[in-house]
Predict the structure.
Amino acid sequence: TVKQSGSLRPPTTRDLHYPRVIFTYEIPPQEQDTFYMRFQSGTSMTLHLTLWRQTLFFNNAILEQIAFGVFFGILIGLLFYNLFIFFSLKEVSYFYIILFLSSMILHEASYNGYLETYIVPDLYFLKPYYHPVLFASMIASVILFADSFLELKKQSPKLHWVTLVSVIGFGILVLLVPFTSYGEIAKLL
């Protein structure tokens, strides 16, 4: 039996409709089987290889889904709270917090497979492009928030220019994503 799946393949190639790649295979009692697995990626890989009994997997999966639900629920709550403060006070630093939280929610949902499995399953093939963009927007929004909150433009103009140059640098790296590989960008850093 040959099975092919992965984060850059349609979620329909998975044996289970689940955020992680899961292969189901039944091994009769008191028998041994040999499995050969091949992994290939142009980026870094996080391999969480575990052999589960079906009931133990589903018990663990429920707990994991609850934990991620709480995690994303807290982040979404913080996002709406900061949206309310932003529209009330109209301070630009809250806009950067909103940008950070939005980017973080989408980045974590993509990294953990929820975005491509449940929200936009037809856009799985764009993950190599939007994943780095979300990460860069997280970093840029934190830098811009610090610049705004600390009022570096008034307090330390030279440091303010350093923050702007670093944000522009991240922007240039994001523009390079469609034209280069992960390894080449990592060498630049």
